[in-house]
Amino acid sequence: xxxxxxxxxDDEPMISGMLEKVLxxxxxxxxxxxxxxLALESxxxxxxxxxxxxxxxxxxxxxxxxxxxxxxxxSTGVIVITxxxxxxxxxxxxxxxxxxxxxxxxxxxxxxxxxxxxxKYQRLVKENELLRSELGSRYGxxxxxxxxxxxxxxxxxxxxxxxxxxxxxxxxxxGTGKELIAKALHQKSHRRDRPLVKTNCAxxxxxxxxxxxxGHEKGAFTGALRTTKGRFEMADGGTLLLDEISxxxxxxxxxxxxxxxxxEFERVGNPExxxxxxRIIATTNSEVPDEIAKGNFREDLYYRLNVVPIHLPxxxxxxxxxxxxxxxxxxxxxxxxxxSIDGIEQSALDQLMQYDWPGNVRELENTVxxxxxxxxxxxxxxQHIYFGSNGRKFVAAxxxxxxxxxxxxxxxATTLRAMExxxxxxxxxxxxxxxxxxxxxxxxSVRTLRNKLQEYRREDDRDxx
Length: 465
Ligand SMILES: Nc1ncnc2c1ncn2[C@@H]1O[C@H](COP(=O)(O)OP(=O)(O)OP(=O)(O)O)[C@@H](O)[C@H]1O
Ligand SMILES: [Mg+2]
Known about the structure:
Elements: E1 5-9, H1 13-25, E2 29-33, H2 36-45, E3 50-54, H3 62-72, E4 77-82, H4 87-96, E5 100-103, H5 108-139, H6 149-161, E6 168-171, H7 178-187, E7 196-200, H8 209-214, H9 231-234, E8 239-243, H10 250-262, E9 264-266, E10 273-275, E11 279-284, H11 288-293, H12 299-305, E12 308-311, H13 322-336, E13 343-344, H14 346-354, H15 360-374, E14 379-380, E15 386-387, E16 392-393, H16 416-430, H17 435-442, H18 446-463
Parallel strand pairs: 1-2, 1-3, 3-4, 4-5, 6-11, 6-12, 7-8, 8-11, 13-14
Antiparallel strand pairs: 9-10, 15-16
The chain binds adenosine-5'-triphosphate and magnesium ion (MG).
Adenosine-5'-triphosphate binds at residues 143-146, 172, 174-180, 285, 328, 361-362, 365.
């Protein structure tokens, strides 16, 4: 078995001695360097999983040790020890890639916890890399997950048409992954080194869509202070993603049809034609044929756009993909939040499997992220699952309805921040306001807890009339 090795860099024998004692008790291999020079030599000679270094060394700056350690092996963790007065250097250290920092006066508990957290984090990152490479090869394109026949079919079409210049119309409900598929089409085409330009037709005020797409000359209309390129020109050589295509007006539909047929257009306020080489991908979450029947969308434009149709199924039509997606987002958010949670309980997974997911994959992603952030246990259980954008609690048929007890987290917390606050206050009250015990239970440092409480106090002050 690999015993993790730690290099401790500090010129104060009191501190290095104490660190050595604590870490050896936890069975780590520990080496002490009492100068920057010795530290660099040690880094040169040996491999360390973790380096704990003081910022102020007589001969070197600890930041230099941090950089060198990261250069030698980016997976090496570095924890920086700073004096109270140098929070700026701590922030700088985090930017350069330190895993965490401790301010002088840290407790033994704090150092033990931080080191333990680092090794759990490192293990997760490794597992995640492995999993990702497996997922990528077994289940589809890069980070697009889906083992259901419907999604496998989508992946096949993507592989087939990506290298061509064919216009693609991606249809699917909100959050089904339309943009993700559009990006994959661009990435897998010969245009990948050119821009992928995105424009949301529903988000631009009606009067501005034309100039947004085709650009305008200086003075073409009030407020046109300088000549501006439109999205078509920006995407020249690359791909143009037209989101929510069914939202554009009949007038613009006609203009778009012309670009698709002739590959040329005019900037607003200039009769000269501009030619571009652009591959077009359009998305819509309404059924275009319905819009055609209602007279809202030109049929000839539809046929021009719909050269290759891709239909993305809603999540409830492919429930077998849910466990894979959950695993994917679980790995993503535990790594991102540096959380060491062992897994997800079957009962929680069952709830995720049964829910209808009106917001599709986006909603699932948010739900898993929320669960990871609020979970302070070894496993994610049903008590960590909140459905819907406002964190509604799941009520399975025949189960008791959500309680009104404000101690249960579900009450009014709608954002992650609010949930975090509730959890922190609840834990403090359970631990009789003992901050050390509360912090330990929450898996955060006493320092972080203190900062959070100060933030809440400031917010509360602001809310008072
Ligand atoms: N098959 C998938 N695998 C992994 N992640 C996915 C998948 N489908 C969607 N996602 C994730 O879900 C979120 C929503 O996806 P995306 O933005 O592509 O949806 P959309 O269909 O464009 O939604 P909207 O109609 O609201 O614009 C993104 O974070 C995306 O990464
Ligand atoms: Mg989208």
